[in-house]
Amino acid sequence: MPSAVDPMFTTTEIINEPLPREMQQHTYAIMRRVEESHWWFAGRRRIICSFLRRVSRELQSAHAARAESAELNILDVGCGTGANLEMLAQFGTAEGVDVSAEALEFCRERGLTRVKQGAAELLPYEPDSFDLVTGLDVVEHLDDDLAGLREMNRVLRRDGRALLFVPAFMFLWGVQDDISNHRRRYTLRELKRVVRQAGFVIERASYVNLSFFAPILFGRLLMRVTKFRPESENNLTIGFLNGVLGRILGAESVALRYLNFPFGVSIICVARRGE
Description:
- The protein has 10 helices and 7 strands.
- By secondary structure, it is of the alpha/beta class.
- It has a single domain, classed as 3-Layer(aba) Sandwich (Rossmann fold), CATH 3.40.50.150.
- The protein has a 7-stranded mixed β-sheet with strand order 3-2-1-4-5-7-6, with helices on both faces.
- The longest helix is centred in the N-terminal third of the chain and has 27 residues, at 39-65.
- The radius of gyration is 18 Å and the shape is globular.
């Protein structure tokens, strides 16, 4: 199948053929099978957790100043098959929403019951409902990313935070983007622009996954040349190196405490609801 988005397109250009809201159906079962152990998912969670610890402390301090319960209400938009919800539960009461009924079934099989079916562009929640909203590799799926981000802003409480994680650079477009029905990959400037348009104040934004930028670029160029198309890139790993690779990626969390990366495979962004 040819790429759904020409890698030369920018985020402001419109794709000609409408794509399904969900990822291709076979990808959910693969994700459920690998997301707890695969190096990319494990390393990403470690990076995300390092950001969440700081954000949750700030939000809990704000709760204390207002004499409110320290328990945070968290919404994971595009919760997928549930591994991120389990991660978020250590920071508060976590709920999930996803457009895919199949993904939500996987969540319920995990025992995660605080999940709803719904689109990011029309979240089934009241305004001012959550202290923290996450969109972890979700915004790139949306036809209207601005509408989705505005919805995240709407359901946040005053001074609430959004934590976003998105893929970077259209020249890194690969099989996983195709099967996930991505609409775009972002540059840091593009993501900042649309986040601000949605009414957020950006507190921190950086590229991440600098460690595997060159191997992933080489691998995707090789797949284009050879026309090799795996069922999912999540199946491409070396079993005995899986843990090592995950620790290498996760170790970026230490450097990211002190500096922003100039490029990477993905982008992480923390933004505060504007007044």
